[in-house]
Amino acid sequence: MRTVKTENTADMESGTADMANLEDACADMVGIGNAAHPAELANPAGQLAGFQLAEIQPATLLKGRTAAGETRWFYSDERPVVLPSGAAASGVPSAPSVLLRVLPPETGLGDLLALPRAELQALLATQPAAVEPPAELLAPVDGGTEVWAAGVTYLVSKQARMEESAEADVYDRVYQAQRPELFFKAVGWRVSGPSGPVGIRRDSPLNVPEPEAALVLNSAGDIVGFTVGNDMSSRSIEGENPLYLPQAKVYRHSCAVGPWIRMAWAVRDPEDMSIDIGISRSGQVVWKGSTSTSQLKRGFGELASYLFRADVFPRGAVLLTGTSAVPGMDFSLLDGDVVRIDVGGVGSLSNVVVTV
């Protein structure tokens, strides 16, 4: 993939080269973030559904490992459908058909996110058809992809934070403030993908998942795609003191993203997407919740613009946009729970809970 010049001159070009080198160094470290003790990845109950190519909608970018063990990026494009003679006139509907394309082996997400949106769309549509589809889905990030998060972006989230905190007014003020709360969540090699582990801290008695719609941003700060995010959180630690937020939010297996990236040009109404979560324990649903991105206090564009203020992301970034499906203070995740998050028009992400 060629290097793309941007308007941010030497500062951004230097960052691009440094990040590319970092991602090369991280390539061998992905297993450190996404796999650990074999017991963490075991799924004896078979609670996570297998990956099916039929689940992929057109205009979806995914990262996968083939049966031969090769990691590649793929793009699902809409395949033209030729109807039998007379079918169109008779009102026979055309069935959706997807052509899976494959990107060059050296291509990473950062290379794609360095491109302007229109150029990215054109590039994806010209890649060759895949000979071997992925046998396994991986987190749709590079080793060096930065994942950030926004907090207290929904009224329900503000109320939940106020309930748990000894400094409740802090959350009311940030909800009403002009500037949103943004924090660094994880670097790509630490991110879990589909069926990977999500962690609960052993030094926290109250731990919850936070289901979120995530923005995939290019180097110019434009929204080019959406994915599903799980911003794992230790409520007891953050509730003790708001300044403990980094410890409550950033730890091993605290972030999951996937199962793929649905491109922005295929999502009809991103600011009215449904978000559903279900938590299963021993095969039984023990908590579920639903919300919609229409309940956000701040728009996606506003959140993205604040992330790019006084900063550059030459290889793009992922931004989790906050949650409003929050369990009560009487609920905490347990080791072995399965968390499934569905974002309408994007996809479903399932992960197994492990203690870290």
Question: What does this protein structure show overall?
Answer:
It is globular, with a radius of gyration of 20 Å. With 356 residues, it is an alpha+beta fold. The longest helix has 18 residues. The protein has one domain: Fumarylacetoacetate hydrolase, domain 2 (Alpha-Beta Complex). The N terminus is likely disordered. α6 runs antiparallel to α7. Helices cover 22% and strands 29% of the residues.
Low-confidence stretches: 1-17, 22-49
Q: For the record, what is the CATH homologous superfamily label? A: Fumarylacetoacetase-like, C-terminal domain
- CATH fold group: Fumarylacetoacetate hydrolase, domain 2
CATH class type:
Alpha Beta
Shape: globular
Percent helix range: 10-25%
User: In sequence order, what are the helices and strands, one letter per element?
Assistant: HHHEEEHHEEHHEEEEEEHHEEEHEEE
Total strands:
17
Structural class: alpha+beta
Strand content: 25-35%
